[in-house]
């Protein structure tokens, strides 16, 4: 018996997992008993001084979990009141309802009182449409009274697939879910609406907690086997030569951040490719980072004849969008990995077909857009309300034949082959100017050391988050590079 804290399963897949567990001989009512027990335990642990436990029960199995929790809380001496609808006859939820003494009152009858704690067992992950007006009014009453909510599986009104509210939605203080997380538990704003997450084992065998859709939390198993290994015989070129393109005189700081991050992330050499007019200014700031004056795409073409140049980062503070497009063309033909960020992405707004055409064949392009940059590149994907952030990242990855690092508090890393990971552990103070430049440099360094693009991106996002944790709440982007450490 187990939980899977790595896999993310859509609600439809979770339904298949439940069905497979029952088909294997595990009683559905036993699963419901275990689920309701975890809910009751959460309520008792976090709200020992509650006056009433208010259980909102829907007609399905989520409501059945609520009936079990209501019975167990009552047996623990808690004053319990149930509101909602009776379950459909004949199923496990009906059995749970029959085993719990007392009547169910209409939802409209609930009047908030001091000391109430709500158990939201109305719909959970089983609903992907707006709640009705009666439930919406209930949610508003709970919100106005600031009554704490413990959600069963998911707050009612939240899509387990997209992490987006479908209309009115409970704000939970705690969410108790079972066997595996859903995307809506990690994607924003779902993660915030769930409050503190509790992933619980209800007795489903580990062999059944699987899915045919390769979505996971970002975790070490995705990249550990590909991390650069220390070799006593290696020299700086074996550790990879990373090139970071610098912008004009006034905007070179972003490139310096990326270059410094590249060094700290393990690249053996890092060179700033700098416009002639900015070389002297950059030189006053650089020590271990080298420089090369690169004026035009022709200069870049000649330099690319050096096979020791292992990977490239273009975009941070670059400024000149026309020049960025001119530079990406030879990079596309150089058969080496490239990270495009910031202006490197904005240069191809409305022209993703051209960008994708430069990187055909084996995947070696990584793009690192934030929400605004993603929208400029993929307006149609951004405007489709049916798509989750995972869906959008995957679609973009296929369009460009690139790994997409779709940044944010719920960064999604997606590969053209459909693999996707959601990173939700980074500290919120990483949301500061220049932080993305550091991330681009980290990923560039890992690519320069030979990691494949998807694995380098997953590892880079993890390293970036850990550096933020070490740097602390008062950090700026300039503080991050010294805190970058091997995974």
Quick overview:
This protein has 487 residues and is α/β, with parallel strands linked by helices.
Provide an overview of this structure:
The structure is a single chain. The chain is an alpha/beta fold. It folds into 2 domains: 4-213, 3-Layer(aba) Sandwich (Rossmann fold), CATH 3.40.50.10260; 220-483, UDP-N-acetylmuramoyl-L-alanine:D-glutamate ligase (3-Layer(aba) Sandwich), CATH 3.40.1190.20. It is built from 18 helices and 19 strands. The strands form 3 sheets. The chain has a 10-stranded mixed sheet with strand order 10-19-18-17-16-15-14-11-12-13, sandwiched between helices. Strands 4-3-2-5-6-7-9 form a 7-stranded parallel sheet. A two-stranded parallel ribbon has the order 1-8. Its EC number is 4.2.1.136, 5.1.99.6. K(+) binds at residues 62, 120, 156. Homotetramer. It catalyses: (6R)-NADPHX = (6S)-NADPHX; (6S)-NADHX + ADP = AMP + phosphate + NADH + H(+); (6S)-NADPHX + ADP = AMP + phosphate + NADPH + H(+); (6R)-NADHX = (6S)-NADHX.
Topology of helices and strands:
Elements: E1 4-8, H1 11-23, H2 28-46, E2 52-57, H3 61-75, E3 79-84, H4 92-98, E4 104-105, E5 116-121, H5 133-145, E6 149-152, E7 174-178, E8 180-181, H6 183-186, H7 190-194, E9 196-200, E10 215-217, E11 241-245, H8 253-264, E12 269-274, H9 279-283, E13 290-293, H10 297-303, E14 309-314, H11 321-332, E15 338-340, H12 343-346, H13 352-357, E16 365-367, H14 371-377, H15 379-382, H16 389-400, E17 402-406, E18 411-414, E19 420-423, H17 435-448, H18 453-471
Parallel strand pairs: 1-8, 2-3, 2-5, 3-4, 5-6, 6-7, 7-9, 10-19, 11-12, 11-14, 12-13, 14-15, 15-16, 16-17
Antiparallel strand pairs: 17-18, 18-19
């Amino acid at each position: 018996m187990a939980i899977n804290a790595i896999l993310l399963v859509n609600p439809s897949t979770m339904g298949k997992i439940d069905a497979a567990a029952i088909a294997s001989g595990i009683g559905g009512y036993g699963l419901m008993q275990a689920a309701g027990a975890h809910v009751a335990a959460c309520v008792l642990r976090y709200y020992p001084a509650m006056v009433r436990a208010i259980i909102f029960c829907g007609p399905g199995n989520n409501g059945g979990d609520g009936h079990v929790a209501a019975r167990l809380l009552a047996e623990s001496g808690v004053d319990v009141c149930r509101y909602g609808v009776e379950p459909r006859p004949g199923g496990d939820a009906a059995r749970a309802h029959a085993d719990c003494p007392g009547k169910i009152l209409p939802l409209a009858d609930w009047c908030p009182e001091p000391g109430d704690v709500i158990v939201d067992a109305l719909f959970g992950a089983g609903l992907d449409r707006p709640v009705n007006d009666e439930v919406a009014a209930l949610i508003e009453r709970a919100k106005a009274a600031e009554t704490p909510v413990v959600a069963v599986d998911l707050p009612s009104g939240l899509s387990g697939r997209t992490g987006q509210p479908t209309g009115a939605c409970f704000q939970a203080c705690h969410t108790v879910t079972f066997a595996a997380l859903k995307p809506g538990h990690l994607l924003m704003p779902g993660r915030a609406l769930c409050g503190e997450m509790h992933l619980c084992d209800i007795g489903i065998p580990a062999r059944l907690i699987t899915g045919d859709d390769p979505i996971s939390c970002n975790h070490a198993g995705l990249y550990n086997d590909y991390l650069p290994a220390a070799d006593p015989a290696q020299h700086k070129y074996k550790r990879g030569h990373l090139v970071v393109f610098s912008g004009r005189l006034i905007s070179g700081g972003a490139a310096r951040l990326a270059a410094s991050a590249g060094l700290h992330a393990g690249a053996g050499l890092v060179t700033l490719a700098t416009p002639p007019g900015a070389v002297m200014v950059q030189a006053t700031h650089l020590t271990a980072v080298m420089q090369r004056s690169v004026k035009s795409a022709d200069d870049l073409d000649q330099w690319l004849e050096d096979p020791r140049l292992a990977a490239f980062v273009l975009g941070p503070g670059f400024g000149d969008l026309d020049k960025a497009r001119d530079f990406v063309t030879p990079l596309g033909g150089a058969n080496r990995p490239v990270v495009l960020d910031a202006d490197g992405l904005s240069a191809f707004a409305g022209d993703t077909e051209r960008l994708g055409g430069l990187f055909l064949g084996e995947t070696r392009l990584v793009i690192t857009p934030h929400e605004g940059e993603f929208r400029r590149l993929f307006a149609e994907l951004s405007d489709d309300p049916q798509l989750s952030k995972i869906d959008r990242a995957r679609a973009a990855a296929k369009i460009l034949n690139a790994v997409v690092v779709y940044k944010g508090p719920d960064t999604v890393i997606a590969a053209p082959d459909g693999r996707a990971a959601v990173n939700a552990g980074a500290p919120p103070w990483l949301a500061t100017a220049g932080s993305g430049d550091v991330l681009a440099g980290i990923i560039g360094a890992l690519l320069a050391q030979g990691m494949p693009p998807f694995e380098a991106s997953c590892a880079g996002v993890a390293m970036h988050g850990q550096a933020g944790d070490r740097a602390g709440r008062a950090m700026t982007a300039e503080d991050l590079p010294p805190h970058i450490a091997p995974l």
